[in-house]
Design goal:
The chain is mainly beta and 341 residues long. It has two domains: 99 residues, Immunoglobulin-like (Sandwich); 203 residues, Jelly Rolls. It has two helices and 25 strands. The chain has a 16-stranded antiparallel sheet that branches. Strands 2-25-24-21-22 form a five-stranded antiparallel sheet, with no helix packed on it.
Length: 341
């Protein structure tokens, strides 16, 4: 019995297509969001379906708009336009009983005659600034205040990355740091963000005037594939320093091992060998599954199914070369490369 070479190739767990899923429907705060504090400062702008935070007089207290769902590891994107006041996008945050009604960390948005603290990270109540971009980063990355700024935020354990308008604010390499960006921040260093929490939009207290809009708030959902950002640390398309991670949109789950389980099928590939001149492959998966073998031209040379573990024997002769064996169970699958000498 001559054993052949089985090489790990492209592993796909519950293969799915990544999608930017909206976190705000542009029509109503309920049922996904809730206001904490004075509700009069928040509205929905019908001209662009944005969330508007506005006050033309000094607001005595802060007010927050929170998601009702909590989030752990994620990549989100949003756009904001700030003409006056102090605001921010909180993540892994918690609701507090009194103004400013929040504990946690935020991507800062501040205006004082111009954009300030652009892309910086601030944590309330302590320790304050954890990553503060250089003032020159505004000139490097910001658009005019009356124009929306596009933000991508990733929390991928244990780091935080922020990209604004295609420039790396947090998680920048040497070139980006020379332009005013900063290195990635370790969020687990701060007790207030050490556990999963909500997203929150802020109107800071005691602002002489407040004018902030948020729109296109979206989260990256799906499962890893060969052409998109994956769980393994790949970056957002077009942003080589901005890491990405997916929320499970439901396509990452389900197999005969149990609903909601993410299944790695690689351990179920057993020995592969020639037996009586024919190719044989041992599959150890204990439940219903299928096996397909494909040549380099994409043509299937074998397919079979079983309800339990078995050894598949391929009766047709296979020429020397490279083939791909795909094992599937439920919505999970994995592919391994076979080399026949």
């Amino acid at each position: 019995m001559k054993k052949l070479l089985l090489i790990p190739f492209a592993t796909m767990i519950a293969y799915g297509v990544p999608t930017w899923k909206p976190l705000f429907n542009g029509k109503a705060f309920d049922p996904e969001w809730k206001i904490v504090g004075d509700k009069k400062y928040w509205s929905i702008d019908p001209t662009d379906s944005s969330i508007a935070g506005y006050s033309d007089t000094k607001n005595p207290e802060a007010t927050m708009l929170f998601t009702k769902a909590t989030y752990d590891q994620f990549t989100v994107k949003y756009s904001y336009r700030l003409k006056a006041g102090c605001s921010g996008f909180f993540f892994r945050a918690k609701e507090a009983a009194a103004s400013p009604y929040v504990t946690g960390c935020q991507v800062e948005a501040k205006f004082d005659g111009g954009l300030k603290e652009f892309g910086s990270l601030y944590c309330h109540p302590t320790p304050g600034w954890v990553r503060e971009t250089d003032p020159k980063f505004v000139a490097y990355a910001a658009r005019a205040p009356e124009v929306y700024q596009d933000v991508v935020l990733t929390v991928k354990s244990p780091y935080v990355y922020v990209n604004i308008n295609g420039k790396q604010a947090i998680g920048a390499g040497a070139a980006g740091q020379a332009a005013g960006g900063k290195a990635a921040w370790t969020y687990s260093d701060n007790a207030g963000s050490a556990t999963p929490g909500v997203f929150g939009l802020q109107i800071h207290e005691l602002q002489p005037k407040m004018d902030i809009h948020f729109k296109n708030i979206m989260i990256l959902t799906g499962c890893g594939d060969t052409k998109s950002p994956k769980y393994d640390g790949a970056t957002v398309a077009g942003m080589p320093e901005q890491l990405a991670t997916y929320q499970d949109d439901g396509s990452c789950a389900t197999s005969s091992l149990g609903t909601g389980t993410k299944v790695d099928l690689r351990p179920y590939f057993g020995a592969i060998f020639f037996e009586s001149g024919k190719l044989a492959m041992e599959i150890r998966y204990p439940g219903e599954h299928s096996l397909n073998i494909i040549n380099l031209n994409g043509k299937s040379v074998f397919s079979g199914t079983a309800t339990s573990a078995r050894t598949y024997r391929i009766n047709r002769g296979l020429d020397a070369g490279i083939y791909f064996a795909k094992l599937s169970a439920g919505t999970a699958s994995t592919t391994e490369k076979i080399v026949i000498p």
